[in-house]
Amino acid sequence: MTLSTRASSHATRPGDGTAPRTGEVRTLTGLRVVAAAWVVLFHFHFTGLDGVRAAADALGPLVTAGALGVDLFFVLRGFVIAHTYLDKLGPALRVGATARFVWARACRIWPAYVVVFHLFGLWLIARLVWGADTQIAFQAVQPVVSLPEYLQQLVLVQLWDAPYFDGVSWVGPTWSVSAEWLAYLLFPLAALVFHRLRDLPVALLAAGSLALMTPIAWAYLLTGSPYHPWSWAVRVLCGFGAGVLAQLVVRRLNGSAAGAAGRPSERVRKWASAIVAALPLVVAAGLVAGELIGPGRGGAVLVAFPVLVGALALADRGPAMWLARPSTVRGGRLSYSLYLVHIPMFELFWTAQQHFPAELGRSTTTGHAVGLAVLLATVPVAALVHRLVEEPARLRLGRLGRFGRRPAPQSVPIVFIPAPVGPSRATLRSAAPQPRRGGSSRRRLGQGSRTVVVTEYVQRVL
């Protein structure tokens, strides 16, 4: 399916790094940087600076609920994966198609992860060896630095046997990358089911998408937190599935129930654009109102994330146009690297605060200046990782995965080309009887057809 909207086809300049990619929905790429920035600000609000605490108190759940950005990422991932791969994997479970999908996802998430993971791992080992206490990372549960743990994290399976994500990853936020990797490996099987749901009524698909978000929303309403044993699995699988169902809704509204290209009607695009404009305000109001009920209760607004993602895929005006701008799309493509590098950078600053309280303490001007510089520096550092590691490795490993694959054999039909209408000089010459020559390889294929050299045809086919 091809989504073609004004927002998703926003003009780009050659060489600006935002040229459209196959199957890309540019508004959703732009949304990625919003989700990543939300998570970054959430983690930064733990910084021990008076100014940061004052800003967090003023903004309240708009910052302190930033962990919801991870759930928004899960919904986004489910939508985009279904948009790109559901028609390829859904009809039947095929080894080749499954292997290509898994390889493509590994090329996407592993190279940048493994670089950041090793660099930060060296930092943890240094703190373990030369540190003055047992705290090697700013996590509630300290990560275990050992060879078995290293091997698990190297292949991104460190979370799979843990009921809680605390301390399972050396780079704290990468628990979600491990969870996402599990969702990718399960998707070829899940695609068999989702593909057979694609012709259900739109209302039923939309209700299913929202229903998948209710378990985690209900946890927020009851306790103010989604934290319970195996809650990480509920978050990733439900969010991912909700995104897939949202994509099926968009597919139907886009006029392409069977996967063929289509375009939503003007009425659908208008309503989608209105939803995109209103929903962020509704989410913000819900976060604030939820705090009045009880701490963290506003997190239940995540039930609206599939609606936001689906509406953005259909919208062609308002905020959707801003998210599809080249600068925003570029930021969206940096979002994964930004997600990886921000905590290691923050931990360096937090460690420096511990060792130099007089210079970088919570009330010092220097501390605030350096803290702000570190926060802003996460963007160029992410851009560097994206440009030097993430994107080149994805392309090179992608080509490596295609190495040795032979193109599918194409049948060459025999086409008899009719002779031109009306007499020609050639036909006049051929009208006279011609003597038959022994051993001729020429054979007349019928009246009104050209002569085909049989040996030449056989050579072409073989």
Low-confidence stretches at least 5 residues in length (pLDDT < 50)? 1-16, 407-462
Proportion of residues in extended strands = under 5%
Distinct helical segment count: 17
Report Rg.
Answer: 29 Å
In spatial order, strands of the major sheet run 1-2
Mean pLDDT: 85
Helix coverage percent of residues? 55-70%
Characterization of this structure:
The chain has 462 residues and is mainly α. It is built from 17 helices and two strands. A two-stranded antiparallel ribbon has the order 1-2. Strand 1 and strand 2 form a beta hairpin. The relative contact order is 0.14.
Short note summarizing the structure:
This protein has helices at 26-44, 50-59, 61-64, 68-89, 95-130, 147-154, 175-195, 202-223, 231-253, 266-293, 305-314, 319-323, 326-355, 357-360, 365-402, 425-431, 454-461; strands at residues 442-443, 452-453. The chain has 462 residues and is an all-alpha fold.
Which descriptors would you attach to this protein?
462 residues, mainly alpha, 2 strands, 64% helix, globular, disordered C terminus
Write the layout of secondary structure elements.
Blueprint: H1 26-44, H2 50-59, H3 61-64, H4 68-89, H5 95-130, H6 147-154, H7 175-195, H8 202-223, H9 231-253, H10 266-293, H11 305-314, H12 319-323, H13 326-355, H14 357-360, H15 365-402, H16 425-431, E1 442-443, E2 452-453, H17 454-461
Antiparallel strand pairs: 1-2
